[in-house]
């Protein structure tokens, strides 16, 4: 397993993250456990800030769907980033954390009337309008409340990237946004300009996730700048903001070849500036929305090994005390991760095993055919790069509680999300009168 951030092998021969021994973390906070490397989180935020925001040409918004907690909102604010939210729950979390609402962008393809009212009440900086229904709904609600709402339009640019089909969002056949090649996008801009309570500030697009071909982002910038030119010619209106979304890929396994954030910024900012100069356009402010590439490599999930089952000549199954309830991505996307035995970090691999979760579900597999030292019950298995879309996608299937989340830094650990208790699992249950004893 590749070590990321502050992760090291300590003098006890154990995995340590943020100066904290993984086995000690399990003893103190229980198992399974999400561990977030705070120094690495901040380092990733700063790389983006320096690449995009320091010059004033761009702004970085953390895509909170990747990892959303109040502590993360505070960290993002301290590092000078804005916030991208996609639901009333994420918006509420940000507000409770005290995040400045003017730096919040509210996305989503089917925002409810209640969520739009919530966003207006909170004073979010921008709402990203996804479709004409939402434009009309937002305009009506803004009129009722006496608000003027700044909006971006989400555009589907027709760019098909090399990524999993469930995380491609820029191609024409997508549930998101106004489709550009069909003329729907221009009609959407004109419709927003006609709505008296909406202020058009710019455009948003997102071409996919876990993208390694940095030229794809440059191409998206060119396509969007061509559209910005068309908007000016058709309406006379200038576009102040171009949000190019997220999607920057990270290394999960040795098969992944991520690019450099600084190079990513150079390609995008240069493409926008060049197209603006070529077309005589004012250069819009460029926004990006990294999520995975800020938090994924900062996260490690620690599990305790339970049963071990060997089918001679077929496979050896090692079961841990978590699984698809804390990491559904292998089941959803076929996602692959690297792992190690945190308590045997200096020992050489000597067997190939497959790691299964504890759910009553044959598809509950975390890792297939990985090489590890001799695995025994009670060992601590560490799975790396679980900071993105693990905690936020976790669930209570089989009535299994979600693990705790801790931030580690300088040899100290702090709980940022408490482990769910059995009482938490039934907190919202009700027995109707006719079933009462």
Automatic annotation (TrEMBL):
Catalyzed reaction equations: meso-2,6-diaminopimelate + H(+) = L-lysine + CO2
Keyword check for Transport: no
EC number: 4.1.1.20
Gene3D superfamilies per record: Alanine racemase (3.20.20.10), Lyase, Ornithine Decarboxylase, Chain A, domain 1 (2.40.37.10)
Residues the record lists as N6-(pyridoxal phosphate)lysine modifications: 65
Domain Orn/DAP/Arg decarboxylase 2 N-terminal: 39-296
Pathway terms, separated by semicolons: Amino-acid biosynthesis; L-lysine biosynthesis via DAP pathway; L-lysine from DL-2,6-diaminopimelate: step 1/1
UniProt cross-references to InterPro entries, sorted A to Z: Ala_racemase/Decarboxylase_C, DAP_deCOOHase_LysA, De-COase2_C, De-COase2_N, Orn/DAP/Arg_de-COase, PLP-binding_barrel
Keyword Zinc among UniProt keywords: no
Residue ranges annotated for the Orn/DAP/Arg decarboxylase 2 C-terminal domain, each copy included: 35-387
Domain of life: Bacteria
Active-site residues, Swiss-Prot/TrEMBL: 360
Pfam families associated with the record: Orn_Arg_deC_N (PF02784), Orn_DAP_Arg_deC (PF00278)
Binding site for pyridoxal 5'-phosphate: 247, 289-292, 389
A GO molecular-function annotation: pyridoxal phosphate binding
Cofactor(s) in the UniProt record: pyridoxal 5'-phosphate
Residues annotated for substrate binding in this entry: 292, 329, 333, 361, 389
Similarity comment: family membership: Belongs to the Orn/Lys/Arg decarboxylase class-II family. LysA subfamily.
HAMAP family on file: LysA
NCBIfam families: lysA
Subunit structure, as described in the record: Homodimer.
Full protein name: Diaminopimelate decarboxylase
Native source species: Heliobacterium modesticaldum (strain ATCC 51547 / Ice1)
